[in-house]
Design a protein that fits this description.
The complex is a heterodimer of chains A (392) and B (253).
Chain A: E1 66-70, E2 75-80, H1 82-87, H2 96-104, E3 108-113, E4 121-142, E5 147-168, E6 173-180, E7 187-196, E8 201-208, E9 213-222, E10 228-237, E11 242-251, E12 257-266, E13 272-281, E14 288-298, E15 304-313, E16 318-328, H3 332-339, H4 345-361, H5 367-384
Parallel strand pairs in A: 3-4, 4-5, 5-6, 5-7, 6-8, 7-9, 8-10, 9-11, 10-12, 11-13, 12-14, 13-15, 14-16
Antiparallel strand pairs in A: 1-4, 2-3
Helix pairs in contact in A: 3-4, 4-5
Chain B: E1 3-15, E2 18-31, E3 35-39, H1 46-54, E4 59-68, E5 71-72, H2 78-84, E6 86-89, E7 96-100, H3 101-113, H4 119-132, E8 143-144, H5 150-164, E9 168-172, H6 180-194, E10 200-205, E11 218-223, E12 226-231, H7 233-242, H8 245-252
Parallel strand pairs in B: 3-10, 3-11, 6-9, 9-10
Antiparallel strand pairs in B: 1-2, 1-4, 4-5, 7-8, 11-12
The structure holds adenosine-5'-triphosphate and magnesium ion.
Adenosine-5'-triphosphate is lined by residues 13, 15, 20, 22, 40, 42-48, 58, 91 of chain B.
Chain lengths: 392, 253
């Protein structure tokens, strides 16, 4: 485990000019800095606050999720105090729920990763009731030049608000896979704060399938030049589900790279998804490259996909910056082409949806996980698209 | 022996300015073992004919019928028509992101045959079909038509023709956009297919050059939404020399 020293780029606060923007409030651990929202605030306007089950009130609770770990050599798990966790640095809470999670969690779980892992580290978090709020605070500290894949698997049900901090050392390569495979009634909010060291590369996957309401905010900053992040997401909302994914990539160093790709499918009455992709390119961030894309496939009437990309550029010297967002039904021409080869409409739709998601899923590189996700999508599809007649 | 009969086919399309009649009574019979070439000026409705027979949702059939061995294809869905034995090589093959060629071909073959192909021979068959079209086997792992060059898309269509081996194939300008080597490769594919003897081909083209490789039994001139004239090879040569002028004028009268 690396020790925290005075010169640690993670622990020192990033000295940044204040940027006037309503899209990303000032980070702060102090709950008082994040007043209770009315629902009209930019960062809250898409979230049905009533369905947060009083999380915003911040009532204390000592309920926990059950942790089950499979940790290969090079990974340690321990408990530290809230103050120790804050001292490790990283991105402070950007919204009230993250601040409350830190304040109420009563300490943090610290995962340290050192060296090159020979297999993924897997952590399953499970709950069995929505009646007791669970506050979570997790810090993941990745040593310089470490190479790891980390899976957080969320199953069962819960009312769970978490703040997860990632401190990724120089030259490290970290893949994180977050799976929200909750039962229908779970409420899950999380702030992921990812600080990326010099020349480090992070691929951060989110797969959100279950839950009544999931709101995930992923914030990225760079603690040195040359860092790279891929934020990759797949979500599938059924009737009544609210699945919200927000990203804020703060290009705080030159020659950094960010690539955001989220893909979602929606089906059923009042299925609602929200994607907010914010990217800020600061004056210092010369020669950076950024691209963000969100695609939504609306499978039935009554579902709504909100998709808002936003790029703020404060320097003229960038390699490339762009965004794209699409929301639509099945493409008639895709279906026509497949059907013209004898493939029945059900199977054709399945192929198209698989193709749509496979583009992201295949990049995980963890086979059993890919299979599980494909199977989960298959199951979601069966309700609307139907099961194919022809055996595969 | 099989027969594809197109009878009095009228087709219109919904446009921003309303209803637009494109096909105005097409009559054409293709028997298995025959190759028919259809030639006609831009916008005369050749692709509309191909799409309407295949069942493209944009085109409304307002009159007529299309019979495959006496059964009206127009009562069938797009996929049912394909399973009945119809194949359309499209003028602009569609890109389907994320669906691999291998998966696509296996799914199509399974649908057409009603059972999954034998795994052992199928992979070999696919690779051989791609190779005959001078497409690298790595194409099997790529998304359907995505990022393919124009010529690669056309060769992919003919690879499918050979693998799915339908009763009737409509080839909509498969020759356009092909360089001379690709044209030969594609023509050989079509000839292999039609030389089985019991398959019919409807070849839509602008150019006589493909007719140097594929011998048509009939050549039809298609103008203003219907067949204006039918002949043999010599008609193609006449068109090459004189253009469509004569027929266009006649149709306008
Ligand atoms: N979806 C559509 N909407 C509006 N007009 C259409 C549509 N499809 C075809 N048309 C029109 O119908 C006419 C016939 O088109 P079609 O594509 O069948 O011609 P073609 O003979 O295949 O031409 P080409 O030789 O250029 O391929 C054209 O005037 C075309 O603009
Ligand atoms: Mg055409």
């Amino acid at each position: 485990m690396t020790t925290v020293t005075e010169t640690d780029a993670m622990a020192s606060a990033l000295e940044l000019e204040h940027v006037e923007s309503h899209l990303h409030p000032e980070p702060s651990y102090d709950v008082a800095d994040h007043p209770k929202p009315t629902g009209r605030e930019e960062i809250w306007r898409f979230t049905p606050l009533k369905r947060l089950r009083g999380l915003l009130d911040g009532a204390s609770s000592d309920a926990c999720l059950q942790w089950k770990e499979e940790l290969p050599q090079g990974v340690t798990l321990s408990t530290i105090s809230t103050d120790e966790a804050k001292a490790l640095g990283g991105i402070a809470p950007l919204d009230r729920l993250a601040a409350l999670a830190v304040e109420n969690a009563g300490g943090a779980a610290l995962l340290t990763i050192d060296g090159e892992l020979d297999r993924p580290a897997r952590i399953t978090l499970s709950g069995d009731t929505i009646d007791r709020t669970v506050w979570g605070h997790i810090v993941v500290k990745v040593a310089p030049f470490a190479k790891a894949t980390l899976l957080f698997d969320h199953v069962g049900t819960a009312t769970y608000a978490a703040n997860v901090t990632y401190l990724v050392g120089d030259g490290a390569q970290l893949d994180v896979v977050n799976l929200a495979d909750w039962q229908d009634d779970a409420v899950h909010t999380v702030q992921n704060g990812i600080s990326i060291g010099r020349d480090a590369a992070v691929r951060f996957f989110e797969f959100t399938l279950g839950g009544d309401l999931v709101r995930s905010s992923t914030n990225v900053d760079y603690r040195g030049p040359g860092g790279s992040v891929d934020l990759l997401g797949v979500y599938f909302a059924d009737a009544g589900q609210h699945l919200e994914h927000r990203q804020f990539v703060d290009h705080t160093a030159p020659k950094t790279r960010s690539n955001v790709e989220y893909k979602g499918a929606l089906q059923g009455q009042d299925a609602h998804t929200v994607w907010i992709g914010n990217v800020l390119i600061r004056k210092v961030a010369e020669g950076i490259e950024t691209f963000e894309q969100n695609d939504n496939l609306v499978l039935t009437d009554g579902a709504q996909a909100d998709s808002v990309p936003n790029l703020e550029i404060e320097t003229g010297d960038i390699e490339g910056a762009g965004h794209a967002s699409t929301t639509g039904r099945f493409d008639d021409m895709h279906l026509f082409y497949l059907q013209s080869r004898g493939i029945d409409p059900t199977e054709a739709k399945r192929l198209v949806v698989h193709g749509f998601f496979n583009d992201i899923i295949r990049r995980i590189g963890v086979e059993d996980l890919q299979d599980r996700l494909m199977a989960a999508i298959e199951e979601e599809l069966a309700t609307v698209v139907g099961t194919p007649e022809v055996a595969r | 022996m099989s027969t594809l009969e197109i009878k009095n086919l009228h087709v219109s399309v919904e446009t921003e300015d309303g209803h637009k009649q494109i096909l105005r009574g097409v009559d054409l019979t293709v028997n298995s073992g025959e190759v028919h070439a259809i030639m006609g000026p831009n916008g005369s409705g050749k692709s509309t004919l191909a799409y309407a027979v295949a069942g493209h949702p944009k085109y409304d059939v307002t009159d007529g019928e299309v019979l495959l061995d006496g059964v009206n294809l127009l009562d069938m869905t797009v996929d049912e028509r394909a399973r009945a034995g119809l194949f359309l090589a499209m003028q602009y093959p569609v890109e389907v992101p994320g669906v691999s060629v291998a998966n696509f071909l296996r799914t199509a073959k399974t649908a057409i045959d009603g059972e999954a192909p034998k795994l052992r021979t199928w992979v070999k068959d696919v690779n051989a079909a791609l190779e005959r079209m001078t497409l690298d086997p790595s194409f099997a792992q790529r998304s359907v038509n995505e990022g393919f060059s124009g010529g690669e898309k056309k060769r992919h269509e003919i690879a499918q023709l050979e693998l799915l081996n339908p009763k009737f194939a409509i080839l909509d300008e498969t020759d356009s956009g092909l360089d001379i080597d690709a044209l030969r490769v594609v023509s050989e594919g079509v000839n292999r297919y039609s030389s089985q003897g019991d398959r019919g081909v409807l070849l839509i083209t602008h150019y006589t050059r493909i007719l140097n490789y594929i011998q048509p039994d009939y050549v039809h001139v298609f103008v203003a939404g219907r067949l204006a004239e039918t002949g043999g090879r010599e008609l193609a040569e006449q068109l090459e020399a004189e253009g469509y002028d004569k027929f266009v004028k006649a149709a306008a009268v």
